[in-house]
Amino acid sequence: MTQAPRLDRRRLIATGFALGGVLMARPIPAVLAAGRIPTPPQSLGPFYPRDLPLDHDNDLVRVAGAAEPAKGQITHVFGRIIDEEGRAIPGARVEIWQCNAFGRYHHPRDTRDVPLDPGFQGYGEMVSAADGGYRFRTIRPVPYPGRTPHIHFAITAPGERRLVTQMYVADEPLNQRDALLNSVRDPAARAALIVPLSPAPQVEKGALGGTFDIVLARDGRFG
After folding, report:
1. pLDDT tens-digit series, residues 11-22
2. Sites in the chain below the pLDDT cut of 70
3. Are 86 and 103 in contact (CB under 8 A)?
4. pTM here?
5. Domains of the chain, earliest start first
6. What is the separation, in whole angstroms, between the first and last Cα of the chain?
7. SS3 for the chain, per residue?
8. Per-residue pLDDT tens digits for 34-66
9. What is the largest distance, in Å, between two alpha-carbon atoms of the chain?
10. Backbone angles phi, psi at 188, to 5 degrees
11. Are 52 and 123 in contact (CB under 8 A)?
12. Most buried pick, 1, 50, 90, 203, via CB within 10 A?
């Protein structure tokens, strides 16, 4: 059987960054620019990495030294870190972590009898750009017992408190029953955590893409 050619990781990330502007090249929604909805906090959860993996860049689909890429549908998540007035926040550390395509985390406390995926990084980080932008190449999140699909985020901006939150997927039936998502009582704030994922062939063939803008409250009321 002829193997498909292996994609050059750095080139693919760079291409995704360039083409990711297609998803991000739109005005920041007025409700965000007006500063009415800071991104609400969510639980850190029990599976934040105890020790960061050696490979913890913003491409979670390829692990250095792994023979195969991650299982699951490749998904590009783009967004901006902004304040309540819509101003970019550069230099913020943006972290994400999530379970693999089988619903298991790379964490010693997750001992469920489901497969590990050595090709999935599980955690990634980057620093927001001058325009506040960030980008991750990961997989579409999947459910696991008691939770709807989600991706954990932590944002540490210079001089600000760390915000921990979660990104959810639009139109997931389990969203209606997820206790943590529905603990956000304000419908507009809750909606700000839910992101539509759509085919993004302009970024990568067969991949999904979605935009998650994160608004940091300057006065610390969500800190």
Report:
1. 454 444 444 444
2. 1-36, 219-223
3. no
4. 0.85
5. 9-216 (2.60.130.10)
6. 54
7. CCCCCCCCHHHHHHHHHHHHHHHHCCCCCHHHHCCCCCCCCCCCCCCCCCCCCCCCCCECCCCCCCCCCCCCCEEEEEEEEEECCCCECCCCEEEEECCCCCCCCCCCCCCCCCCCCCCCCCEEEEECCCCCEEEEEEECCCCECCECCEEEEEEECCCCCCEEEEEEECCCHHHHHCHHHHCCCCHHHHHCCEECCEECCCCCCCCEEEECCEEECCCCCCC
8. 446 999 999 999 999 998 888 899 999 999 999
9. 59
10. -70, -40
11. yes
12. 203
Alpha carbons 105 and 114: distance in angstroms, whole number: 10
**What SS3 string covers 171-212?**
CCHHHHHCHHHHCCCCHHHHHCCEECCEECCCCCCCCEEEEC
Please report, as a single letter, which amino acid is at residue 105: Y
Q: How many residues does the chain have?
A: 223
